Amino acid sequence: MDPDAVAKAFVEHYYRTFDSNRVALGGLYQDASMLTFEGDKIQGAAAIVAKLTSLPFQQCAHAITTVDCQPSGPAGGMLVFVSGSLQVGGESHALKFSQIWGND
Amino acid sequence: MDPDAVAKAFVEHYYRTFDSNRVALGGLYQDASMLTFEGDKIQGAAAIVAKLTSLPFQQCAHAITTVDCQPSGPAGGMLVFVSGSLQVGGESHALKFSQIWGND
């Protein structure tokens, strides 16, 4: 399968899950996973879910603007870069966001 | 050395070089390096330098806002995320930019 298509499908799945059921994001992380969120480093699926479910908003809707991916490492890993906007419940205008993934 | 300090030093060096002598960026890439630039994938130090020196501006000044890094892969690699602004010669206001590096 085309790596760009894999990256796009993953990203769409991730944010659809984020916007509908943040607890289920735990299934997309492992114990060795690390999330850096606004400078904080958070390790492991359980801690990452705790962080994402404690964000100070309930409703949110991510809109993806760009998805770029590159091969990474000898084991067929990928580096994925996403940018987009985030509409948070109760706020009148959208925030910009960007996020990257590596899976080596 | 602290990985965050290494990442910050690398990023400062990269953009100082970018702003003063783009050709010298070639020394920071290898033949296996890949740059994704606004959706284009460019492979190898020579091709990357050709791309960066052909951008439609001569003078530029990057200002770094955030540098985040995470360990990546079993071989001690890092994933680095940078955001900031870019002032281009002849333009009155700055552009936002973000860039990521992986070195597995």
TrEMBL record, chains A, B:
Domain NTF2: 6-101
Key words, A-Z: Cytoplasm, Nucleus, Protein transport, Transport
Key word Cytoplasm present: yes
Entry superkingdom: Eukaryota
Principal location: cytoplasm
Pfam entry (one): NTF2
InterPro entries: NTF2, NTF2-like_dom_sf, NTF2_dom, Nuclear_transport_factor_2_euk
GO BP terms: mRNA transport; protein import into nucleus
Subcellular compartments: Cytoplasm; Nucleus
GO cellular component: a single term: nuclear envelope
Task of the protein: Has a role in nuclear-cytoplasmic transport of proteins and mRNAs.
Record-given protein name: NTF2 domain-containing protein
